[in-house]
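Milestone 3.1: sequence recovery, worked example.
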């Protein structure tokens, strides 16, 4: 893996990628942040050695280097998922590459469904903790100890300082920002009524199909990480509606301005 990481990093540096202070992973329908980025260089995933290629039609496939709110950033415009047929090694490989480029902190966004029915569509949830229901670990491979401690402590996977800054900023900007537990499932099918009930019983406030592998690897690498979910639909088992992907994208778009404000203000304070 080390050789693959080095080859990817060498390629990116040859294309003009510098040393980023912050890495950002953009989730479903959350691309407007790029409107505020002073982009210096872009690389398509399919040109970067050993990078997977995003196969979801509403996920782009570019790695971007530039400046946002005065900070050098590297941004994943589109992420990878287990449900695309990739391994946990593939899904988290870009995090290891961004770390080797120089990334010091990681911010993650995703679209998720509300288990906590006090949450409304289009609102945001700061992830305080998570439940891994994806059936594996991105650290379960031979030689992982050469890249970091095998038995990674996960008592506080999301950085307390950045989370507190997110909460303070949300209050300043009068943005509704819930705080809760994110459950990550395999997908791509959505949950049944019984599964929504189960998720509520085990303590989840929102459910999605991403984020947790990247967060585990960030902790493995000693990178402080913070993540925000956009609530795009509600999993009410007693009144469950059929999934409408266009509505999910519309809800993500509705929440984008608030997400952009929070990310920009946090970057200014780091």
């Amino acid at each position: 893996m080390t050789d693959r990481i080095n080859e990817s990093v060498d390629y990116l540096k040859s294309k003009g990628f510098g040393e980023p202070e912050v890495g950002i992973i953009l989730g479903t329908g959350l691309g407007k942040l790029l409107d505020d980025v002073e982009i210096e260089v872009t690389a398509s995933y399919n040109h970067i050695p050993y990078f997977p290629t995003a196969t979801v039609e509403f996920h782009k496939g570019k790695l971007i280097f530039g400046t946002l709110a005065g900070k050098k950033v590297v941004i994943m415009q589109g992420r990878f998922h287990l449900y695309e047929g990739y391994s946990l090694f593939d899904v988290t490989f870009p995090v290891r590459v961004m770390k080797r480029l120089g990334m010091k902190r990681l911010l993650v966004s995703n679209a998720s469904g509300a288990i906590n029915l006090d949450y409304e569509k289009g609102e945001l949830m700061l992830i305080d903790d998570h439940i891994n229901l994806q059936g594996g670990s991105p650290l379960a491979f031979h030689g992982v100890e050469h890249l970091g401690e095998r038995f990674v402590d996960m008592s506080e996977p999301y950085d307390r300082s950045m989370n507190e800054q997110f909460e303070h900023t949300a209050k300043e900007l009068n943005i509704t920002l819930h705080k809760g537990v994110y459950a990550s499932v395999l997908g791509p099918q959505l949950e049944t009524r019984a599964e929504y009930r189960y998720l509520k019983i085990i303590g989840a406030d929102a459910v999605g199909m991403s984020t947790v592998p990247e967060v585990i690897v960030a902790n493995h690498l000693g990178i402080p990480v913070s993540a925000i979910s956009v609530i795009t639909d509600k999993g009410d088992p007693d009144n469950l509606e059929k999934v409408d992907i266009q509505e999910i994208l519309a809800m993500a778009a509705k929440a984008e301005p608030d997400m952009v404000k929070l990310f920009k203000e946090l970057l200014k304070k780091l």
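The chain has six helices and nine strands. The chain has a mean pLDDT of 93.
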